[in-house]
Amino acid sequence: MCTKVATPGYDQLMYSFDTEGEGQKQVFDDVEPYFHYWHADGYTRPWLPFTASETPSTVSSARWKLIPDMVQNEAAADAYANTLNARAEDVFVRASYRPYVRQYRGLLWVKGFYEPQRTGVRTVVPHFIQAISGEPFTLGCIYNNWTDKDTGITSRTFTIITTPPNKLLAEIHNEGQRMPLIIPPLQRRDWLQPLTDQQISGLMQPLPDGFLKAHPVSGLVYDRRKGINNNQPQAQKEVQMQKDLFS
User: Fold this and answer.
1) How far apart are CA 185 and CA 169, in angstroms?
2) How far apart are alpha carbons 80 and 66 in whole angstroms?
3) Which of 52, 62, 140, 154 lies 20 to 30 Å from 7, alpha-carbon distance?
4) Which secondary structure element, helix H or strand E, spans residue 145, and what is its range?
């Protein structure tokens, strides 16, 4: 599963929008201030920078965890099944995703993401995975513009699609054996356009090796104790891996 990501800083994201060869220009369109996450935990349902197929040249905030239309209100949304991720193999069949995958696809802008590596019987080491270039990149998503029936407020909510891993992620995420769907720059325009099921499936493939790099980080990203701030630069700092005495 991919449940922890980092977003680029505002200036870095704006610079990437102006890069030639992206296949599309991007602009911000948001009434809320841009919030930079060194570490965003999907279980808190954060608002993150997102490009939707309805507005392919605009970046605005969307909320992590896809909420289907049938959900009544915010309390029910919190309690709804875990839809932080959608397996590529399931998006055309599962009720939570089937109504949206053909029309509502989007791009989540990230600096990187975190995955755990099992290194021993009692040891799990989180890793930060990012582009070798250090530039922001995009994850393929499905979204829904969900309306809270109690308040009438509509929010864009999304799930990150996952695929089988490439070689790098198979070594790191060695228990889960999944990776987020990464949409390369030259495929972004296609991903946001109307496509056939076959074309969508053709884009939902593991990213070939050679684009990503990874390093171990501290357990800060998994520390959920009250008062602990794990949204800080320290979350991405490389650490030395420790040997498990019980392995």
Assistant:
1) 20
2) 10
3) 154
4) strand 137-147
Q: Does 243 fall in a domain? A: no
pLDDT tens digits, residue range 2-46?
999 999 988 888 877 755 444 455 666 765 667 899 999 999 999
- Other CB atoms within a 10 A radius of the CB of residue 106 amount to 25
> Cα 212–128–41 angle (5° rounding)?
120
Reference 242, options 113, 115, 124; nearest CA is 124
Instruction: Answer yes or no: pTM beyond 0.90.
Output: yes
What's the rounded mean pLDDT across residues 176-186? 95
Q: What does pLDDT average to over the chain? A: 91
| Residue 59 in domain | yes
CA atoms within 13 A on the CB side of 17: 19
Residue 238: pLDDT above 50?
Answer: yes
Is residue 107 within 8 A of residue 62, CB to CB? The reply is: no
Count of the separate structural domains present in the chain = 1
List the one residue out of 83, 73, 9 whose CA is nearest residue 45: 83
The CATH number that applies at residue 229 is 3.90.1680.10
Rounded average pLDDT over 158-182: 96
Residue 242 lies in a domain: no
Per this entry, what is the length of the chain?
247
What is the rounded CA–CA span in Å between residue 50 and residue 187?
Answer: 16
By C-alpha distance, which of 195, 60, 86, 203 is closest to 142? Answer: 86
Q: What gap in Å lies between CA 101 and CA 91, rounded to an integer?
A: 7
For 139, the domain range is 4-236
